[in-house]
Amino acid sequence: MISEREALQRVLANVSPLGIQTTRLEQALDAFAGSEIVATIPIPGFDQSSMDGYALRSKDVTMDRLLVTGEQPAGRDLGLLCEAGSCIRIFTGAPIPHGADAVIMQEDVMRDGNSIHCLDRVEQGENLRPMGADVCVGQIILRRGERLTPARLSLLASQGLTEIDTVQKPRVAVLTTGDELAPPGSGPLAAGQIYNSNAIMIASLLQRLGISHIRTAHCADDLEETMRCLDHLSNSHDAVILSGGVSVGDHDQVKPALKKLGIEPELWRVKVKPGKPFLFAKGQRAHVFGLPGNPVSSFVTFSLFVRPALLRLMGASDSEIEPSMLLAPLAETLHNEGDRPHYIRGTLVKGCFKSSGMQQSHALHALARADALLRMEAGETIEAGSYGKVWQLH
Ligand code: AMP
Ligand code: MG
Fold first, then answer.
1. Of 142, 167, 192, which marks where a domain is finished?
2. Which of 97, 99, 335, 363 could form a disulfide with 358 if both were Cys (CB 3.0 to 4.6 A apart)?
3. What is the CB-side half-sphere exposure of residue 46 using CA atoms within 13 A?
């Protein structure tokens, strides 16, 4: 059995980013930048007011009265001039009139007809946003491999851009296996049946990554059917994520089906709990991930191996792939008596990790309550109050 670290390295060694395409910003959310973007216009684009008030020469503020000689709203630059002893009525985002070096807030003046009396001082540059203070021309505003978040899309729009090079998003198939599974909504269960809960979990984890082309399918524990489904899906998708059927039971058909299709597993079985039977193979087109059927095992192996692989496929940089880990004190003493690293499901309450209930690999309820996973080494004990390595999930 191989270690988690080696398994991840071997998976990633088989994954490289998909091709680059031009995407409209409206369609680019959660894709990864395919190239670097350099600013071509400064932000702000001109010296502007950050307040509603009066633009003036800061040293004039001590004068008894200042004459209001014009008004500059946000919009077209009227080319006004602020002369000594005068001021210009101005609004947020409006260009600063020539000669003015500060803006006094309207709350800090008394207006009397055509003049104002300043009730407070202003420093030179106060309430003013200088041109280029946020972004200057030539500055890198987006790096290759960075995720296109709402704020980053907004930054690109502020440069007047309408499209961007992104790495293509993968087409992903989720293939659940198991004779015992019934789709939710298909009516009451017959004896021995359970509802298929992994399909929605895996599809939702994919959506979280920003993947939208997701096909879900199901096949029985039957070699021919598994082969047919796998063959079709692996030729039409960039990744196929299988759930169940990947162990050594008589009804586990994933390995035999892959073998018959000539797809050699790159790895099978990893030293991790839950999730030992995890399998990875590289087909002609598709990357094939075999997740154990137990729901928590599926979730953990998806997080450990599938997530980074898909992000790499989507062109994410290493830092975007890095999980968000922190050190947190434990609310209780925990032991890992097993011989594999164990990911304990739990919650972070006021910065302390607390396990969230039953920790067996089928126990979906504790997983559903969890917002963090504590990684415990084989044989490790962590005392209450001592720090453990915690992976934040959301
Ligand atoms: P397997 O990996 O196929 O041996 O399945 C291990 C356990 O996970 C069994 O108890 C299965 O019933 C359960 N299981 C498998 N697939 C799913 C699924 N899609 N949803 C919920 N439970 C599942
Ligand atoms: Mg099964």
1. 167
2. 363
3. 14
